[in-house]
Amino acid sequence: MEYIAYKGLCFTIEWYHDAEGRSQPLEYFLCLPDRMQDKTLYLFKRIGDFGKINNKKQFRYEGDEIFAFKPQPYRFLCFFVRGRKIIITNAFMKKSDRLPAQEKTRAMTIRTDYLRRLKDTTYYETK
Q1: Is 45 left (phi over 0), alpha (psi -120 to 50) or beta?
Q2: Which of 10, 29, 32, 69 suits a disulfide with 36, CB 3.0-4.6 Å?
Q3: pLDDT tens, 81-102?
């Protein structure tokens, strides 16, 4: 399965996948209507090619090294890693003004798992 969402001049955006190869954010993305997929890919392309998105309604720091792509009303949480990569951790529909604590906790747990598996050289192994 291909886990690269977009490869730009400044950043490569990747879908996180667990040890079994499943990717919740990719599966979520693929279930979105085409118009919402286009809006999401536009944000990935923007940061991938230009290195930043200045509009906080489209991309925002959420604390604890977690960021959010915000194609309304959806959220794609992510973090930055060495090698000019952005890893998309999880996706959900936002239903209130605040970021749900469990979604941010999930993103932080995934970040820890990614970094551990990267250190153990098991994240990018070929099956």
Answers
A1: alpha
A2: 32
A3: 999 999 999 999 988 878 999 9
Read off the pLDDT of residues 39-56 as tens digits, 9 standing for 90 and up. 999 999 999 999 999 999
Query: Tokens for 55?
Result: 């509009």
Domain range annotation of the chain = 4-119
CA 46, chain centre distance (Å): 14
Q: Give the CATH number of domain 4-119; options: 1.10.3720.10, 3.30.2310.20, 3.40.50.620, 3.20.140.10.
A: 3.30.2310.20
CB-neighbour burial class of residue 63 (10 A; exposed 0-12, middle 13-18, buried 19+): exposed
Q: Are 72 and 31 in contact (CB under 8 A)?
A: no
